[in-house]
Structures are given as structure tokens and as C-alpha cells.
Amino acid sequence: MASVGDQLIEILPKLRRFACSLAGTISEGDDLLQNAVERALKRQASFDSNRKLESWMYAITKNIWIDELRSRKRRGITVDIDDQYGLQGEDGRVITEQKIMTEKVLKAMNELPERQHLVAYHVLVDGNSYKETATILDIPLGTVMSNLSRARKTLAKKVLGEGLLQ
Amino acid sequence: MTNISNEMIMAYVDGELGKDDIQTMENALLEDASLREKITRHHALMAEIDLAFNSIDNTPMPEDILALLQDDHSTAETAEVISIDTVQKRTENMQTNKSWWQPASIAASLAIAFAMGMEIEGPKKVSDDFISTNDQFTYLLNSAASGSTNNGIEFQQSFLKKDGSFCRTFQNRHSENYTDGLSCRKQNGNWSIVVLTPSIPTDVYLPASGDTENAIQLMTIRMKQLSSEEEKIYLSK
Description:
The complex is a heterodimer of chains A (166) and B (237).
Chain A: H1 4-23, H2 26-42, H3 53-75, H4 81-84, H5 92-110, H6 114-125, H7 130-137, H8 141-160
Helix pairs in contact in A: 1-2, 1-3, 1-5, 2-3, 5-8, 6-7, 6-8, 7-8
Chain B: H1 6-13, H2 19-31, H3 33-57, H4 63-75, H5 84-97, H6 103-115, H7 129-132, H8 135-143, E1 149-150, E2 153-160, E3 166-172, E4 179-185, E5 191-198, H9 215-220, E6 224-225, H10 228-235
Antiparallel strand pairs in B: 1-2, 2-3, 2-6, 3-4, 4-5
């Protein structure tokens, strides 16, 4: 059977998306992902192989992020200077525009209440069905739909600058 | 004005409806301009989410993270030595082969499948790999010039996304209910449908603003439109 590390490689891009959606920026998402991978590798002996690695990693990542938020509350918010300025590439304008759009979406997701965020992530980003999402989050199907509906309305306002029509 | 609930609209764009409900929705979409506008906004939102998360995928994985996995692999008792490049390639492979599912693509795949007379039983989800395994459609996306119509699909314009992806707009005329689509070629050569919306019939009156702006326009406005000469270069790739 493949080691936890080997299995992690396979799901790393997915985990990175999840970490970025929690953190609200790519750079903070990458820091979060690194911490999650470190913790998982340290604790791999305790991983129950009957469990899905993805669920285990989602839980680790989410817990580290919750700890980080608590710690920030205590010490105040710090801002990474790289997040404040667009990267300059061959066409700095293009990279900046794309970065702004990406971070606008990530920030909008990051600001959703936790349950709405998780439901929106699993359905809209990870591509799970409503039923799969209900199973992953261990909540009723109706709760998935109501949270998804509320999340969508908020995301539409923040991302498109307008709500969804009612 | 049709009486379609918001829950049903959401389920439609998420690919959660069964065949009968999809048909009900698509019939309603033909009659109801405000419903089309609602669907368009849902697709526009999902397209933005899609772009944002693809942009994450297109950002190289930090080497520190890859190094952690490399170290772990190298210290495993039975492991052979593995280089960072190998780890990077494996994650890139996962990125490019990921199920680029996107709800719009799922709804789109279903709609295209039905429009092409293909049967999909039940409300199960279909990844866009369905489209990429549709050899005929893929072949046309890779070869048909804009302005041509082949097997009921009219290819309209070609674009280049800011990340360098080649994208094409098309109209699918396989059934009475035409649909307009935007498809982009992924790094691994497979195609994904980014947006698919019901075509607005030419005899339907639309107000001057708002309703005519659809998700495809919202997406392509940020892309570079290719000339026919430029398109040829990308078709041959």
C-alpha cells in the first residue's frame, strides 16, 4: 500500500484549493497547506487506513486554520506584503488582473460562515453532488441545499457585484 | 413568466436534476427571458469561481511543500529515491488530469449529451471528461474553423485566455433548443465546457440592457479574440 506521503502527492492540488479557499489568498493557503502536510507526515502512524486520506487531510487543514484564526485574534492581524501588490511578470498588468480576480473569489469564500463555506467548497469547487457533500459533512441534504443557496447569493453579490435574481 | 423555483434553478446548474426535470427547465428557458437571465448569472458566478481555482492550479506548487513529500518518500524503508522534479511532475499531472468538473460543465455535458441524442440515465453527475471522450466533438474543437458548421455545431469565434488556453465559442444545434457554449482546451489537450447557456431565439424581444449580456460575453470580454490566421496556429497545435 502506498505511504501517506505518496498518497498525499496525488491529492495535493485538491488540498491546495481547499487551503486557499479557507485562507483567502494563495500565499496564505500555501502556508496553511505546508503546515497541514507537515502535521500529516508527523502523525501518519496514527492514520487509520480504513479512512479516506482526503477527509483526514481536510480535517487537519481546517483545524490548523481554526488554530491560526484564534492565534491571530490574540496577536492581531499581520499582512503579507506580497499580498498587497500584484506580481510583475512579462505582462504585469495581466498577472495583477488575474490575481485580483482570483483573490476576490477566495476572499468572498473565506468570508462565508463556516458551514456555508464548506458546502460551497464541496459543491462548487470540489464538484461533489449534494448527497456526497451531505455525507462528507455529515449533515442532512436539506441543510446542504439551504446553505448552498445562501452561499451562492452572498458570493454573487461579492464576486459579480450583483445578486442572483429572485 | 414560468413558475420555476430557485431550488430547481440551483439544482439545474449543479447538474442535480433528473432527465424529466431538465426537459422541463429547458422548455421553460425557451419561454422565459428572466429565467434565462437567472441561469446566466449562475453560470457567470461559477465561471468566476472556476477561473479563480484554475489560477491556483496554474501557480507552481511551492518547492518547500514538495520537498517535505520528497523527504518523506526518501526516508520510507522501501522507497526508491525520488527527485523534487518527479514530485512536481506528479502533482502537475494531477492538476492537469483532475476532474475539471465544474457545475456549469456538468449541466453543459448533460445538455450536450441530450442535444446530441445521447442517453444518460438518472440524475447522476457527469464530468466534463464525458465531453473529452466524445471523439467527434473533440475532433471538431481541434479542427473546425470558426464560421463553419459541422454535424450541427457552428463554431463561432476563437479566443486566448490570459493563461494561454485556447478557447472557442460555438452553438449546438442538435435539437430544437439551441445552446451557446464556450469551451477551453486544458494543458493536457482535453477540452472543458466552461459555459453553456440556452441560445436566445432571434424572434424573442430583449430589452436593450442586461438581458443580452450573457455568461459567454462576460467570460470572453477578458480574453483576446483570435484572427482566423491566429486560430489556424492554435488549431494545428
